[in-house]
Specification:
It is a single chain. The protein is an alpha+beta fold. It has one domain. The protein has four helices and eleven strands, in the order H-H-H-H-E-E-E-E-E-E-E-E-E-E-E. Strands 3-4-8-9 form a four-stranded antiparallel β-sheet, with helices on one face. A hairpin with a 4-residue loop joins strand 8 and strand 9. The longest helix has about 50 residues. It starts with 11 loop residues before the first helix and ends in a 17-residue tail after the last strand. The relative contact order is 0.14.
């Protein structure tokens, strides 16, 4: 007679050992998976930045080698929305949050809107690593325009209406960064840094600090907009795109809480406890690292 041997199951000790091994492997592998996922997001952000960079350079070539408008803010707090990338007096609507022709035209000339015909994609201004934390500046939807989107990429506002030929070292001058940190702006774009000009100015573009630092001297006062969330968008840094056409991941000195960073390598002087820039390197007028006429050693 054939006898079948009775099959025995796992003992409790064996099950506990297997569970412990699985838990140890998970603890080891999950951070690796998270890092790989963040690396993929970082690559996506670099790609988005590169697309916006190429679109901006296409715009520059189509508009007499002049960079697009960056910001419409006078030093007295009023808004300017004039066309052709160079703001003039008298073109500010009484209520800038309207859908009149001047407002719609002005919004269309802001950097991200100006280059949108070249990207044909509104989502390209958003980095997948964004925390979703946004600053709502109260922008409104213009007549016939699509709904506002959150924007995490930022334009170097010192390039506003600046000539491509005037850039001394294109490989050193940032054009697009993640200067809202891991956050963004809701339905609004604000360059970082940006230029403030006097309402009496006939044009508003970057002027070197040697010409004097005064709000009454058009373009000589540059301002830092501020970060919505930590500057460490991807671990220890964020993506930068430069005027020569290259984009890369740039490591920031987030551990410098006191003292100072190297002003030839990054724009921010030191960082606070939340890894937001606490101050910036300036030449007396503008944030040093973003100047179009910069020529670093």
């Amino acid at each position: 007679m054939l006898h079948l041997k009775k099959r025995e199951g796992f003992t409790l000790i064996e099950l506990l050992v297997v569970i412990a091994i699985i838990a140890i492997l998970a603890a080891i592998l999950f951070p690796v998976f998270a890092q790989a996922r963040e690396k993929a997001r970082q690559a996506s952000c670099v790609s988005n930045n590169k697309q916006m960079l190429l679109a901006t350079l296409q715009y520059v070539q189509d508009y007499d080698e002049t960079f697009p408008f960056g910001y419409g803010h006078w030093v007295d707090g009023t808004w300017n929305t004039q066309g052709n990338g160079v703001p003039f007096v008298g073109d500010t609507p009484p209520n800038w949050e309207t859908t009149n022709a001047a407002y719609v035209r002005g919004m269309g000339e802001y950097w991200s809107n100006a280059v949108q015909p070249y990207t044909k994609n509104l989502q390209v201004v958003v980095c997948p690593s964004s925390t979703g934390k946004v600053l709502d500046l109260g922008g409104v939807q213009g007549a016939g325009l699509p709904p506002p989107v959150n924007q995490t990429l930022s334009y170097n506002g010192l390039l506003q209406s600046f000539s491509l030929a005037g850039i001394q070292a294109p490989a050193q001058v940032p054009m697009i960064t993640e200067s809202q940190g891991r956050g963004g702006l809701k339905g609004f774009q604000a360059p970082n840094p940006f230029i403030r000009c006097a309402p009496a100015a006939t044009e508003c573009r970057y002027i070197p600090s040697a010409s004097g630092c005064s709000p009454n001297n058009p373009g000589t006062t540059g301002n830092w907009f501020g970060f919505v969330d930590t500057a460490g968008v991807h671990g220890r840094g964020q993506t930068y795109a430069y005027c020569d056409g290259h984009a890369k991941f740039k490591v920031l000195s987030l551990d410098v809480k006191t003292g100072a960073t190297d002003f030839n390598k990054e724009p921010w002087h030191h960082y606070d406890a939340t890894d937001k820039p606490a101050s910036a390197w300036t030449d007396g007028c503008h944030i040093y690292y973003f100047r179009p006429d910069i020529l670093l050693p």
